[in-house]
Amino acid sequence: MLLSIGLPLIIEKLVLIVVVVMSSLVIAMYATFAERKVAAIMQDRRGPNRAGPFGLLQPLADGLKLFFKEEIIPNLSSKFLFILGPCLAMLTAMMTGAVIPWGDKVHFFGRDISLQIADVNIGILYVFGVVSMGVYGIMIGSWASNNKFSLMGGLRAASQIISYELAMGIALIALLMTTGTLSLKEIVQQQQEHWYSWNIIKQPLGFLIFLICAFAECNRTPFDLPEAENELIGGYHTEYSSMKLGFFLFAEYINMFLSSSVMVSLFFGGYDIPFVNDASLAESIGTNWVALIHAGVFLFKAACFLFLFMWVRWTIPRFRYDQLMNLGWKILIPLALINMLATGAFILLQQNNWHF
């Protein structure tokens, strides 16, 4: 009996895992194409336009090129760890999507199926734990390369990510004090009533700190010091080629997409459609169509953040390393602490019915 009850649930989750993983890979693949197009528009040129109509097959051409390229493993490298590094970076990048609510629910075969792989009540802690593990892939790969430039890039990545995770975590504490839950699903549901119930209205400073730290966590310009080609020849993936290099590059774009998805869930209502009553919409067009629209709205919001990542890359120059550390330790962490204390004071005043 337990098997008959659990088997449909297992099948649902497996299908959802496959859909999320494949969607993340496709979005990351075409994010590389979008980035080159955005850069081309900003620099008044065409961008990729040869492979397929309008250049749409360029990501496939790039992927095939990486797949069929000669694979080179340096003789003096630690071969097992050299292979493990990019695999770990890719694995941790994909794992973040397990707790993100991509939509409400669909109704198939007499069952309500949630568009979330795992609704754990410590979803934000899970995201932080997985993101923290991502630096191990970079560190292992850089150390195993036996290259001083790679090792320098890995050390930069580790110190940068540790520094900016502190400010990001403190900014999230203020958000958790406001919402009272660690579950991403509950945080999204709390923002469904009105567009002004989105957490960006309640925690604007917390969102700004989180956004800046997300750039640093993803090693994106102006925080791309770990792979600064001007001084480190590519940083932690200097010695990598073929699909191992592809794994590192893909992991960066998957991290961009999933970071955007986390920011949408935490601060912008998740799959909420602003100015629309979901209940009346479901009565008119059906639950499944509403779930599809929800997923589309969620992806549109995430795409806006992806565009922001690309826009910043081609607009703002790279920081010096001392500037990067000063920003993290001397500006963002104090701001996050002030925001957390102010949020706590405001909640305490509300609970005691005090007025300014």
Features:
single chain, 356 residues, mainly alpha, 13 helices, 2 strands, 2% strand, globular
Topology:
Layout: H1 2-42, H2 58-68, H3 79-95, E1 105-108, E2 111-114, H4 123-144, H5 148-179, H6 184-190, H7 199-202, H8 204-217, H9 229-232, H10 242-267, H11 278-285, H12 287-313, H13 321-351
Helix pairs in contact: 1-2, 1-10, 1-12, 2-10, 3-4, 3-10, 4-5, 5-8, 5-13, 8-10, 8-13, 10-12, 11-12
Question: What does this protein structure show overall?
Answer:
The chain is mainly α. The protein has one domain. 69% of the residues lie in helices and 2% in strands. It is built from 13 helices and two strands. It has helices spanning 2-42, 58-68, 79-95, 123-144, 148-179, 184-190, 199-202, 204-217, 229-232, 242-267, 278-285, 287-313, 321-351; strands spanning 105-108, 111-114. It has a two-stranded antiparallel ribbon with strand order 1-2. The longest helix is centred in the first third of the chain and has 41 residues, at 2-42. It starts with a helix and ends in a 5-residue tail after the last helix.
As laid out across the biggest beta sheet, the strand order is: 1-2
Beta fraction of the residues? under 5%
**What structural class do the secondary elements suggest?**
mainly alpha
H/E element order: HHHEEHHHHHHHHHH
Termini separation (Å)?
A: 60 Å
Major beta sheet summary? 2 strands, antiparallel
Spans with pLDDT under 50 lasting ≥5 residues? none
Q: What is the average of the pLDDT values? A: 85
**How large is the count of helical segments?**
13
**Fraction of helical residues:** 55-70%
Counting DSSP E segments of at least 2 residues, the number of strands comes to: 2
Q: Based on CA inertia axes, which overall geometry fits?
A: globular
